[in-house]
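Reposting from the mailing list since nobody answered there.

I have sequence plus structure tokens for a pair of proteins and want to know whether others read the tokens the same way I do. The first protein:
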Amino acid sequence: MSKLQGKSHNKTTLLYHLVCAVKYRRNVLTEDVTDTIVNVCMEIQEKYGIEFIGIGTDVNHIHYLIQTPPKYSPTQIVTMIKSMTARMVFKINPEVKKKLWGGEFWSEGYWMVTVSATGTEDAIREYVKNQGNKKYLTAYTKDDV
């Protein structure tokens, strides 16, 4: 569950739902690759204070529910997550690099929204947790954004 973060002069609850797709939508998010990504995310959490409340994967994209301190912009958060996870996936799972042309793991784009803009934190948490479950494939439509 998210919590207020801050120091003596500020309190925030900044929650984001971030979706990153694998380059060319290749189906490379195996259990081993996902484990690598989750481990890197735990290192990011410890070092930078970005809390990963939920991480859910399908075979070619990943959903994050994250809470961040206000010192990081959304672009900084995405850049940090994508660069650090890609570097370690290629290092620990070198077979993945052979499936992707050009040596890039993530596609250039991403989707990021504040949780309150599309639903409650609990709804997003459940969606992230059940990634790949057919029940959620049409749960969020373009009109909801």
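The second protein, same order (residues first, tokens after):
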Amino acid sequence: MTTLLQQIEDMRVHVNDLANAEQGLVKALGDALNRADQKLLHDVRSVAAEHELRRGTILKELQSLASNIGLLPAPRESMAMLESAPREVPAFPVQEEQHAIRRGDWRQAANNIQDELDFHLNGRTH
């Protein structure tokens, strides 16, 4: 029986050694995963910081563009004189149902373009 007790004791020691080795491997794996997590977190923060830097640069460019929109050179005096000069009366009679278009009325001109497009496009589709 001593041999059986000795074999059981040897087996217990062997199992304890295996358990300690496995515990060491699990701890090493946990440490490796923690290092990988820390590196990933650092990489994500770096990418986010680079993105914010690029975003800030783009935002500054857009703000600069927005501040420059609408800044056109002042009209020259000769152009102002031409605009204030009286216009000649047209040689053809203006019918009452026609609306007189004011000089420089870009809104009316844009509506006229849209009306012409509608007329031609609707005429071809029907």
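Reply #1 (J.P.):
I read it the same way you do. Residues 2-68 form the longest helix (67 residues).
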